[in-house]
Design a protein that fits this description.
By secondary structure, the chain is of the alpha+beta class. The protein contains three helices and six strands; from the N terminus they run αβββαββαβ.
Length: 121
């Protein structure tokens, strides 16, 4: 008879943070400045020293999937946590946040909207 364990405590499965917008911000080491507080999602800007990003929490996986699908049109780097949150920021900021929150780093396709990015900064 074979017995399967659920949580061996090994490091095979990467940890991904979960919780409310405030709990995620606390784990990220920043104070959230809430911009959107709606039934289906909450969004806040977050700063931690020189790091700056946007945290978005969702009430369900469908909301997250729809948000990501729309955001993909604009390009950028995202940190995606299971089915409940997304962080958006520069590649270095997202890499640092990944160390704190886990999740999956996703580089969206470069913006299909606008096409106005011709090296002007």
């Amino acid at each position: 008879m074979m017995v399967m364990g659920c949580g061996s405590g090994g490091d095979d499965t990467p940890r991904t943070a979960s919780g409310s917008l405030e709990q995620l911000a606390a784990e990220a080491g920043c104070r959230p400045d809430v911009q959107t507080d709606a039934a289906e999602l909450r969004q806040a800007t977050c700063e931690n020293g020189a790091r700056r990003y946007v945290l978005v929490t969702f009430t369900n996986a469908r909301g997250q999937a729809e948000w990501l699908d729309e955001a993909n049109d604009y390009g950028g780097t995202y940190l995606v946590g299971k089915s409940s949150w997304v962080a958006v920021g520069g590649a270095a900021d997202i890499a640092a946040l990944h160390d704190r929150l886990g999740g999956t780093v996703v580089a969206a396709a470069e913006g299909r909207h606008g096409g106005g990015h011709h090296g002007h900064h």
